[in-house]
Amino acid sequence: MLKRISFTAAIFAAAAAPAFAHLNPAEHGSVLAGISHPLTGPDHIMAMVAVGLWASQQGGKALYAVPAAFVGTMAIGFLLALAGVHLPFVEPAILASVMGLGLLVATAVRLPAAGASAVVALFALFHGYAHGTEMAGAGALEFGLGFLIATAFLHAVGIGLGVGLNRFGPRVTRMLGIATAVGGAALMLG
């Protein structure tokens, strides 16, 4: 068991390593700034990896449909923010998404691909909107492209973890879901 936990911790450490990179503030509107942004926030990392973990638990079409729904709806949220549309409760919804996605993984909730996609799309709208409010003006589209790339990468990390861990049974993946939900609660209280 200790070997499995060590293996999982090593994978998470490798996935989070880019979070320590900081870009020059003058590059805020660049693709690189967009890529680095989701990798520097624990809320983003936990939610995006959880989407991949949950997709791996769903299997089948959901393995691709769930992350695609998240990325696509995240882009819509980003564009709504750039257009000046007001979306209420953005930060609470983002924190709730971390806890909610963690609980979905922890309890291994099974839904049809369309249902699971709709759930993550709701969360994604708020994540994308938050990115759009942080970045307006020159370079916004480059920044948006960057954070979409980073989001897809974090989903892929979650899928890879989930598929790899499923060989050992569902317990380790479910424990990661619990850790994500607890992490979301800690962020909410902090």
Describe the structure.
With 190 residues, this protein is mostly helical. The chain has one domain. Helix content is 76%, strand content 0%. It has helices spanning 2-16, 31-36, 42-58, 62-82, 90-106, 113-134, 140-166, 171-189. The chain is globular and about 50 Å long.
Summary?
Residues 1-21 form the signal peptide. This protein is mainly alpha-helical and 190 residues long. 76% of the residues lie in helices and 0% in strands.
Provide the fold topology.
Elements: H1 2-16, H2 31-36, H3 42-58, H4 62-82, H5 90-106, H6 113-134, H7 140-166, H8 171-189
Helix pairs in contact: 3-4, 3-5, 3-6, 3-7, 3-8, 4-6, 4-7, 5-6, 5-8
